Amino acid sequence: MRRGIATPITTLMITDAAIRYRLLTWFSPAYPVGAYTYSHGLEWAVERGDVCDLRSAYDWIEGVLSAGAGRSDAVLLAHAWRAESPEQLSSLAELARALAPSSERRLESSTQGRAFLDVTEAAWPGPRLAWARALPVALRVHPIVVGLAAAAHELPLATVLEAWLQAFVANLVSAAVRLVPLGQTDGQRLQAAFEARVMHVADQAQHAPLDEVGGMALLADIASMNHETQYTRLFRS
Fold it and tell me: Would 22 be classed as within a structural domain?
C-alpha cells in the first residue's frame, strides 16, 4: 500500500529535531541550488597563484568569511529573517543585489536564490514565501530568500546563521580541494579550523545593524571580476 504525505509541512510542531532536520536539508549539498558550481572567485586566485596550499587556502576563505560576502550575506539574511512586510523585504533584496561586486556574484546569488525558492515552495511551503515570489526575478537573491524561509518556518536565527555560514565555508573548502588541489584530509582540517570562526561571525551578524553591512575583502571582489574573462575554468564564479 502506497502512503502519501499524511500531514502538511506547515502543521508540524517546530521541535528542536524538526529545526535540525530542515536546516540540514536546506544546506545539504544535495539541496538543488547548484552551490557546487560556484567558487566565489577562488578559481581565479588559484590560477594567479595566490592560493596554492593549505595555509593560503585558509587565509583566502577566512578573509571572505570574516570581511567579505560571508559576513555581509549573513547580516542581510538576519535582517530578512526580521522583515515585517514585503516592502521591507524588497528594500533588503535591492541592497543585497547592489552589494554584489561583479556580474558573476550577482548571477551566483540570484540563481541560487531562485532555485532555493522554487524547491522550498514545492517541498516546504509557507505563506510568507509569497513575499519572495512577488520580487522581480533578479531580486530573489539567496540570503534574502533563505532568511524569509527560515522566519516562515520559525527557525531560530542564531542556528540558521551558523548553518548558513558552515555551508558557505564548506562550499569554498570543497572548491579548494578540487582546485588547489588539496587532499580530502586537508579539506577536513580546513573545515575543522573554521568552527570557532563561523560561530563568531554568526554571532556578529545576528546583532549587526544594517548600516554595518558591507565588506573589505577587496582581492576576493577583484577575483570575481577577473574570473569572468578567465580563459579556462571549471566553476561559474
Answer: no
